[in-house]
Amino acid sequence: MDSFLEEEEAAAAKSPAAQAGSALLPALHLPFLPPHLYQPASSHEHKLNFKKSKEVCLSYIQDAMLQKQWKRAAEFLTFYVESLEKDFSTQYMGPSEMIWRIGTEILCHHSHSSMKEFNSFTEQMKTLGVKRYLKVCLEHAFHLLCNGLIDEAYQNLSLAESWRFGEQTAIQDKEMKLIQAYRGLLDYYSWSKQKTILLEHGQDGFEDLSVEQEMHSCFRKAAVNLKEIIKIPGVWDLFVKCYVDLLEFYGDHNEARQVLNEYAYNSKFPANPNAHVYLYQFLKRHGESKKSLISALKILHDIVPSHELMIDFNTMLQKSKKRKKRRLGLEVIFAALDYAGWKENVKAWSCLARQVKQIVISEKHLDWIKQEWNSRKDWWPAFHFSRYLAKRNWQENESLSYEKAVVAGILLGKDCKYFKYVSHQGCKAQVKRFRTLKKFVNKHNPVYLRISGLSDSSVQP
Questions:
Q1: Whole-prediction pTM
Q2: Which of 378, 327, 383, 382 is nearest to 355 (CA)?
Q3: What's the whole-number average pLDDT of the chain?
Q4: How far is 257 from 69, CA to CA, in rounded Å?
Q5: For residues 171 and 223, is the Cβ–Cβ distance under 8 A?
Q6: How far out from the chain centre does Cα 116 lie?
Q7: Is 279's pLDDT higher than 50?
Q8: Distance (Å, rounded) from C-alpha 172 to C-alpha 131?
Q9: In 3-state terms, the chain is what percent helix, strand and coil (to 5)?
Q10: Least confident span in 65-69, 196-200, 227-231, 245-249
């Protein structure tokens, strides 16, 4: 970080802290700090003022970071560290996690920062911070990966995995498992690259044999570490996906299924919608029964009713011969459209339009529509069926406006503002399906009265 303060280099050369190989910057005279932060004081005064000085200095650092004034933050951090050294020179004082975190953040954002400086700072934090050695190693590896230095990150993780320091090794067992897991992830990355080469060039020749051997070597190393981490209750999405990919490639589908079932249904693991997504995708890839697919998506619906797979779920339920499942299908698509992210989803509106039309034509299960509509009739008209939305939908997406007009006409009747505007524009443009839609809604307007519980057609939404 010395390069941040070129104008202070002369003073830095004379600083005792710099000569001692301080991990941070040399001492600075900072006139904009309160005097008690840098003026000499007696030992007794130091003890009284140190806590207050530290808090004030940290507040300056926080303010500088929030304003993205990274050079200023670096200066304050330097002063903060040197204050610690000055007040506790007779006691051992390892770098606190606060200094590590702040220093890392500054180095990640400072315009004059380089990878060399970041590596140097991190290595010193590792040396001085035994109690968080593996945490620092893990974050260092992340930083290297973010900068595309995959080989360096792998080497860093390998060295960390071999680290031993008495009882500290056992205390940092969780961090060690993460180190091993991320090394397994990089082994998977190497395996994936080798797999691509093998698939592109076929399976003949000495070169392909060496690629296959390297690929199997990466597979074994990756599988061991990935398998271990996903046994621990937690959210391990990336690790699970990679491990399942390895198993599927080598045909071990039973093991892959067991891993995904455990990840999705083990009560010791936190509720995780992605676990059910991965299981559903696996079952679908392997042609499993509709019952299995519906079971996986039912839990996903309970956790995240707005998930994009609710279209698939609704489609499967509508094709079922069981009334209970078709009823659930209507509930699913109504629930999805409660969310703003679905407001302009043509597929979702098409699913709902198709189902409510079928119910209206058959005049069976109108109570299903009524039950869903009762909890929405106070807010869906403004949320979905305003005149403003009718104009915008018509201009931007004719198909969307048509599907919504079908639903609006059935739920709110022929006098609904959305339906009136879209059907008028469609007829004006001489689009046949809009004329058909208008006739359909006029014909079945009594259904709207039954759904809404009105006794006459004079009430306009």
A1: 0.77
A2: 327
A3: 81
A4: 51
A5: no
A6: 30
A7: yes
A8: 8
A9: 75, 0, 25
A10: 196-200
